[in-house]
Automatic annotation (TrEMBL):
GO aspect biological process, one term: negative regulation of signal transduction
Keywords associated with the record: Signal transduction inhibitor
Database matches in InterPro entries: RGS (IPR016137), RGS_sf (IPR036305), RGS_subdom1/3 (IPR024066), RGS_subdomain_2 (IPR044926)
Annotated ranges, domain RGS: 86-202
Source organism: Thryothorus ludovicianus
Protein name: RGS18 protein
PANTHER family: REGULATOR OF G PROTEIN SIGNALING, REGULATOR OF G-PROTEIN SIGNALING 18
SUPFAM superfamilies: Regulator of G-protein signaling, RGS
Keyword check for Ion transport: no
Pfam family, one: RGS
Keyword tRNA processing listed: no
Length: 216
């Protein structure tokens, strides 16, 4: 009969081999997620690099969205002079409207022109069905007490507008829009014409960025 003690070294050696194999497998298992993570990060960097190279990624927002006065630098001095002829003339031209909007943002009073634009859009509604949701949005945004962009309206105009929204029609905001229009024409428009940005356009210069903001 074979002595059992002679088998001990063989068993010990086999256990040692199994332990070493387990360590190698465990190490590889740890490395695989790390490699996959590095590979994924590399792919993301490559995609970002390609995106940054696309011309459209660097294009600015449309003028109608931002009122970017720097874009209005392409306006000729002759066109800018016409803006000074009347407030109607300024608002009737897209570049003029954009420039004025940008100016109002420097005074923290852009809610006035935004309300006026919203009213213009409201009056262009193609059906009575469109008037109800639009009227509700305009009222809640610009007119009701503590509205996020509340415009300065007298009590009588606000009440008259509120009552007309029971059955909205295209003229429901006419009184309120006219009141805000007069406020801009008599107060903000003269300051716009005296602003450094507008004077720069008259002289064919690009307006300076980072205009100081003030509350009217």
């Amino acid at each position: 009969m074979e002595n059992p003690l002679l088998l001990l070294p063989q068993l010990s050696f086999s256990a040692s081999k199994d332990k070493a194999y387990y360590k190698v497998m465990k190490s590889e298992a740890k490395e695989e997620p790390h490699k996959a993570s590095k590979h994924g990060a590399k792919q993301k960097r490559n995609r970002l690099s390609l995106l940054l190279q696309k011309p459209e990624f660097h294009e600015g927002d449309h003028l109608g969205k931002t009122g970017n006065l720097t874009k209005a630098a392409s306006v000729s001095p002759e066109e800018a002079v016409k803006w000074g002829e009347s407030f109607d003339k300024l608002l009737s031209e897209k570049a003029g409207l954009d420039a004025f909007t940008k100016f109002l943002k420097t005074e923290f009073s852009e809610e006035n022109i935004e309300f006026w634009i919203a009213c213009e859009d409201y009056k262009k509604s193609k059906s009575a069905h469109e008037l109800v949701p639009k009227a509700k949005t305009i009222f809640e945004t610009f007119i009701q007490k503590d509205a996020p962009k509340e415009v300065n309206l007298d009590f009588h105009t606000k009440e008259m507008t509120s009552q007309s929204l029971g059955q909205p029609v295209r003229s429901s905001f006419d009184a309120a829009q006219s009141a805000v229009y007069r406020l801009m024409e008599q107060d903000s428009f003269p300051r716009f014409l005296r602003s450094a940005a507008y004077r720069g356009l008259l002289q064919g210069r690009a307006p300076a960025r980072g205009l100081p903001r003030r509350r009217s």
